[in-house]
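Hi support team,

I submitted a single chain yesterday and got back a structure, but I'm not sure I'm reading the token output correctly. Could someone confirm the output below corresponds to the sequence I sent? I've pasted both exactly as they appear in my results page.

Thanks,
R.
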Amino acid sequence: QVQIVESGGGLVQPGGSLRLSCTTDRNILRIYTMGWYRQTPGNQRELVATISRGGTTNYADFVKGRFTISKDDTRNSVDLQMVSLKPEDTAGYYCNAHSSAYTHYWGQGTQVTVSS
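Hi R., thanks for writing in. Yes, this is the structure output for that exact sequence:
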């Protein structure tokens, strides 16, 4: 029902910045929560940040003060501004749309690599 496309990943040095973008083909005001998650090989996908329909944000402890999630209801997009990146932030980053109690939609992911 909801198609999601992520972009903006890449290689960055420690302390650098990246902005990830997630664009949907649906009015995000119809979606409960949009979020960013990340996953490394062999590990569970973990919450990075979410933003609700009303603009309420939620962040994982390990990104508080460094990452900012925002949305643009006109463009049906959700961005993740990442600053002060650390090597441990290296992961595949996935955009999620929580559109109902039981339904989540995922993008294909975009790779973020923090390395010298």
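A quick pointer for reading it: The chain has a mean pLDDT of 95. Let us know if anything else looks off.

Best,
Support desk
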